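Homework help thread (please don't just give me the answer)

Our assignment gives two proteins as sequence + C-alpha cell strings and asks us to describe the second one. The first is just a warm-up. Here they are:
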Amino acid sequence: MKPATRSFYEDAVQRAIERILTHLDDALSLDELAQMAGLSPFHFHRVFRGMVGETPLELCRRLRMERAAWQLACRQTAVTEIAFDAGYETHEAFTRAFRALYNTSPSGFRAIPQPRIELAAGCGVHFSVHGTIPAFVPRDTGGQHMDVSIKDMPAVRVATVPHVGPYNQINSAFGTLGGIAGPAGLFERPEAAMIGIYYDDPQTTPVDELRSEAGIRVAEDITLPRGLNDQHLSAGKYAVTTHVGPYEQLGDVWARFLGEWLPKSDHRIRPGASYELYLNDPSQVPASELRTEIYQPIA
C-alpha cells in the first residue's frame, strides 16, 4: 500500500488534473484548484509543478493546443474558430504558438496525413476526444532521494524589510536591511543569519505584486531599530534541505522538494511560512559555492 500522505498528494493533483481536463474552456482558477487540494495556492502550485512537470496553466494551454491539433486534423472547423477555442484572441497569435509547438502552420498541419497530435509530456496526460481521464505519472528526476532532515525548530524572530516586486530584485531590500542592521550591531550578534521569506508563487502572481521580506535573525531581547519590521517564524517541525549553487536555481529546488520528495515521504505540509536561510555571502564566494538551507513547515 502507498503511504497515506503519498495518496493524499497524488489524489489532490489527480483531482486538479481532472478539473482542468473537464473544464478546458473555463477560466483557470488557481485558488479553486488549491482549495480542492486542501493546500494554500502557494504550496499547491509548487507541489503540482513538481509532480506534473508543468504548472496548471501550462498544462491547460498544452491540452487546449492538443485539442486544436485534433480539430485541425479531424474537422473542417475554421482556423479562426479553433484559435478562439484554444484561448487566443487572434488568428496570428494562435498560428505563432502552434508553429512553435508543431513546427508547422495550422494549414500545414491539416495537410499532413495522420499527424501526431500529442505533444511531449512526461506526466502522460493528453487531450482525448472521448473524454478519457488518464492517471498522471508523477515526475521523478531524483528529487525523492534528496538529502532532507526533519528538525524541531524553535520560534525564530526575524527583523525584516519588505519587498514588493521581482524576487531577483530583493537585493535592494537586503541593502536597506544592511544599512539599518549594520550600524545597530545586529550582524555582530551570535544569532545573526540572513533569511528570505517569500509569500507568492512567481509563476502565478504578477511580477510587480510578488511579496517577500529580507530579514536577519535576531534575539528576543533585542530592541529593533526604526525601519525594521518584527516577524516571527513559528516553532515546530520543518523539513530542511541544503542547496549548493546559484540562487537562480532555487525555484527548481523547491519544485523537486515539494513535488517529488514530499509526496514520497510520510509528511504533510502544515500552515506557516517557508523560508530560505543563506549560509554564506554572495559577495565573498562564487555563485557555484553559495549554500542555502530551505525550510518547509510540516505536520
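The one we have to describe:
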Amino acid sequence: MDTVLFDLDGTLIDTRRLYAAAYGQAFVEVLGAPPSAEELRARRPASERIFLVEWYGEAVGGEIHRRMLAHYDAGASTLMGGFFDGIGEMLAAILSAGLRVGIVTGKSRFAFDVTCRHVDLSAFEVVVVEDDVERAKPDPAGIQRALKLLGGGEAVYVGDTPMDVEAAHRAGLRGAAALWAWADREGFEIEPDETVWRLARPSDLVERLGL
C-alpha cells in the first residue's frame, strides 16, 4: 500500500454543524421549509450540488446550492469544526512512512477553498472535488481521477459513508469505514466484509497499514 485517499467531511474534519446550518437556511429561503431528515437520508447525499439538482432540477437545485455556499462561507468562522481527534497524529505517521495522500470529496471547489482558510489541508498532494466529476459517489470517477494524478499504485480509500466504501470497491480499491464520527448514530450500515477495514479511531488506520 503506497497511497491513502480520504473523503473529507465526516472523515477528516467535522463540518456537520456548519453544513446543517447552511443547508437549513438555504432550504428555507428557496423552498419555505427544509425537507425532513427522513427525506434527506433517503437521498443518500454524497455531494453538494449534484444531489440537489437531481432532486429539484437545475434551476431550483442550483439556487439552493448557491445560497448554501453563501451561508457556508458566512458561518465557517464560528461553526466549522477542525480535524477529528487523532487525525493529525494519523497523518503524521502516514507521511513519515512515505505514503502519498489525497482527498476525494463531494465538496464543491468553492466550499473547499473556504475550508482551507480555516483548516490546514496542505499535506494532501491531490484533491478531487465535486466540480471535477460528472457523477457523485458511489461512482468511482473521483477516486480514479485522484489515482491517475498520483501516478497509480496500490491504495485504500477512507470514508464515513457506505457510498464511500462502494466507490472504493468500484474503483478496485480497498474501502475503509471511518467510524470515529458515528458515536451518536446507529452505526455504519454495510454488510460485514473482510475487504472493508472498520476503523474505530484514526490510529486504527495506522495499525492496518502496518506503520
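TA reply:
I won't write it for you, but here's a hint about the kind of observation we're looking for: The chain has nine helices and six strands.
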